[in-house]
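Figure caption, in words: inputs first, then the predicted bound structure.
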Amino acid sequence: MSSEIIFIKGKKVTLRPPETDDIPLFTKWFNDPQTRENLSMRRPITMEEETKIVEKLNSTNSVFLVICEAASGRTIGNLSIDISWINRRGMFGIMLGEREDQNKGYGREAMTLFIDYCFNVLNLHRIVLEVYSFNERAIHLYKDLGFVHEGTFRQHSYKNGEFYDLLYMGLLDTEYK
Ligand SMILES: CC(C)(COP(=O)(O)OP(=O)(O)OC[C@H]1O[C@@H](n2cnc3c(N)ncnc32)[C@H](O)[C@@H]1OP(=O)(O)O)[C@@H](O)C(=O)NCCC(=O)NCCS
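Bound structure (coenzyme A present):
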């Protein structure tokens, strides 16, 4: 779907709050075998469950935004941060739902806009994320944006018959500014 609402505006992408009409597309993405490959989802997700997930992600302790292609307004992904206000820290996640929208710089710009929002508007001190060791594109992008590889949970996640390492990465506001 496309929407007129814009929360953060970039050149390639815009970020907006989610709407009820987004739920079928998100449910499609999270059930898609290829899309699930890089994410932690294993169980099937119903529209009802996805509705609850999105509601929970847009609470006082989280921000969830929809990524749209700036030129068309088309919905292409989402990103979120789960915040610990006491520690001024957030756990970040991002996905572009369709393969043809990946590797075109949309993820980079969406993250750049969102990191700026997290540090300069939400006043967070630290952004952390987890990424599978085989997700080379994501790791390249995160490192390029300044995220530091802080540790590895060895053979942490079982996927398709194998255990994979999970990398823990972090970015401090002082490193970003
Ligand atoms: C990870 C993701 C958010 C990145 O967004 P994107 O728009 O595809 O990425 P961008 O085009 O902005 O940047 C990708 C960078 O990785 C590089 N890259 C692409 N494939 C790569 C690979 N196999 N190995 C190393 N680098 C790679 C690109 O060259 C580009 O770097 P550059 O700008 O220095 O040339 C997106 O691909 C995605 O949603 N993937 C599926 C879900 C996912 O993996 N989410 C993250 C879970 S932790």
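The first strand starts at residue 8 and ends at 9.
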